[in-house]
Amino acid sequence: MKQNVGTIDKVLRIAIASIMAYLYFSETVTGTLGIIALAIGAAALITSAVGFCGLYSIIGVNTCKVKS
């Protein structure tokens, strides 16, 4: 897999994952919506750690800087 998630994108994904986890574990968001928020946060964290986003590859987006 070729990386297509850049540094700024990774930081934003980690921030989103942290916010979603906080909302779920503080019981601000509960029930089905809470589980969905937690799943979105987990997906954001995983794609940030791996550096590859499947959706980006489908729509042709690449936020990685090109190495010369």
Task: Tell me about this structure.
This protein has 68 residues and is an all-alpha fold. The chain has one domain. The chain has 3 helices and no strands. It is elongated. The mean pLDDT is 92.
Quick summary of this structure?
By secondary structure, the protein is an all-alpha fold. About 65% of the residues lie in helices and about 0% in strands.
Distance from N terminus to C terminus (CA atoms, Å) equals: 19 Å
Major sheet attributes = none
Extract low-pLDDT stretches: none
Supply the number of helical segments. 3
Overall strand count: 0
**Fraction of residues in helices?**
55-70%
What radius of gyration results from the CA coordinates?
14 Å
H/E element order: HHH
What proportion of the residues form beta strands (DSSP E)? Answer: under 5%
Number of domains: 1
Shape summary = elongated
Write the layout of secondary structure elements.
Blueprint: H1 7-25, H2 31-50, H3 54-59
Helix pairs in contact: 1-2
